[in-house]
Amino acid sequence: VTEITKAQLLCLQLGRLKDKGKAKFTQVSMAKRNNVYHALEIARSAREILGANGILNEYPVMRHSANLESVKTYEGTHEMHTLIIGEDITGIPAFE
């Protein structure tokens, strides 16, 4: 529950910043990096809780997991967003 609440608050704050025109791309990277990571972990936990049923069509867990795997890749992987955030913190360019 803590990680879900953290993800919701991160998105809420990012939305508020965007509405004010103050959101930075590094904040978007932070939100995507964090929220996709934890969404995948939650989907994996759900699959494990359901046991063998977790991979059947009876439950949507595998469909959600597959969707999250694609979200993890497009618009930058976890590692790419780590580099973007690191550059913002250190000022050292991650890409040339």
What characteristics describe this protein?
96 residues, mainly alpha, Butyryl-CoA Dehydrogenase, subunit A, domain 3, 4 helices, 0% strand
Folded structure, characterized:
The protein has four helices and no strands. The longest helix has 26 residues, at 25-50. The protein has one domain (2-90): Butyryl-CoA Dehydrogenase, subunit A, domain 3. The protein is 73% helix and 0% strand. The chain has helices at 2-19, 25-50, 61-73, 78-90. The chain is mostly helical and 96 residues long.
CATH architecture identity = Up-down Bundle
Instruction: Count all strands and give the number.
Output: 0
Q: Report the end-to-end length measured between terminal Cα atoms.
A: 40 Å
Number of domains: 1
Which residues form runs of ≥5 with pLDDT under 50?
A: none
CATH-defined fold name = Butyryl-CoA Dehydrogenase, subunit A, domain 3
CATH class bucket: Mainly Alpha
Helical content stands at: over 70%
Provide a quick synopsis of the model.
The chain has four helices and no strands.
What is this structure's SSE topology?
Elements: H1 2-19, H2 25-50, H3 61-73, H4 78-90
